[in-house]
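for the recovery benchmark. tokens below, seq after
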């Protein structure tokens, strides 16, 4: 072992003499190397941090940052719809007044020589002694001698007549009141014309309506009788309706 060490020492030559200047230089180089490592580590960390922040900003929504926490979005309160109860117009307009008294004898028909004004139709017969008034393109027949008519239920002392047209939605000409074509509805005769009625001939007084077709056209003359003070049955109403026609 001693022989080997001696051989190595001889091959390496004598050790160089180390002075104080050499030691100071080595110490200075060591301090510099340590400072370089610290600076390099700090710079690398800063670059890495900047990269992380950059990536974070790139994935955040525009206009936001990853700094202070954003305030929670407050949900918009939708006001509850206010339920409004629709007005019951039937109750508002409910008429509790009684109709006039039905007379012992029905009011007879009389010839009408004055065509109705303001409408496209007229009737050749009229209840005897009754007056004619044009209102909203319809004719209202009433008894001018009826005492204090305002005491009675509305429309229970008038006879209404107006014109209307049937419509064809693909199933044939159909009156507005019905869902079936005219050709499928049961017919009655009113004078020389076809008619559809809500009652049948011979039926007692009630709310009665007649749709009188004008030849083979789409035109109708509609008669609604609610006049208790006429005391008409369906036969009399059909006789009156048969006298109604479009003006020539």
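predicted aa per position
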């Amino acid at each position: 072992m001693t022989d080997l060490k001696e051989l190595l020492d001889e091959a390496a030559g004598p050790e160089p003499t180390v002075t104080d200047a050499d030691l100071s230089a080595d110490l200075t180089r060591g301090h510099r190397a340590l400072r370089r490592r610290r600076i390099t580590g700090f710079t690398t960390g800063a670059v890495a941090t900047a990269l992380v922040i950059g990536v974070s900003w790139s994935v955040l929504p525009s206009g936001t940052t990853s700094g202070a926490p954003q305030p929670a979005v407050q949900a918009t309160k939708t006001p509850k719809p206010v339920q409004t109860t629709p007005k019951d117009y039937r109750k508002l307009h409910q008429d509790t007044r009684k109709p006039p008294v039905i007379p012992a004898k029905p009011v007879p028909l009389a010839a009408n020589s004055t065509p109705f004004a303001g409408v496209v139709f007229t009737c050749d017969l009229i209840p005897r002694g009754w007056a004619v008034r044009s209102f909203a393109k319809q004719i209202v027949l009433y008894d001018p001698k009826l005492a204090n008519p305002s005491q009675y239920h509305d429309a229970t002392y008038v006879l209404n007549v107006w014109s209307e047209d049937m419509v064809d939605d693909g199933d044939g000409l159909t009156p507005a009141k019905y869902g079936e074509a005219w050709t499928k509805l049961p017919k009655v005769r009113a004078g020389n014309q076809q008619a559809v009625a809500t009652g049948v001939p011979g039926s007692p007084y009630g709310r009665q309506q007649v749709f009188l077709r004008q030849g083979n056209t789409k035109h109708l003359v509609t008669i609604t009788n609610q006049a208790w003070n006429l005391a008409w049955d369906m036969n009399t109403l059909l006789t009156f309706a048969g006298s109604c026609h479009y003006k020539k």
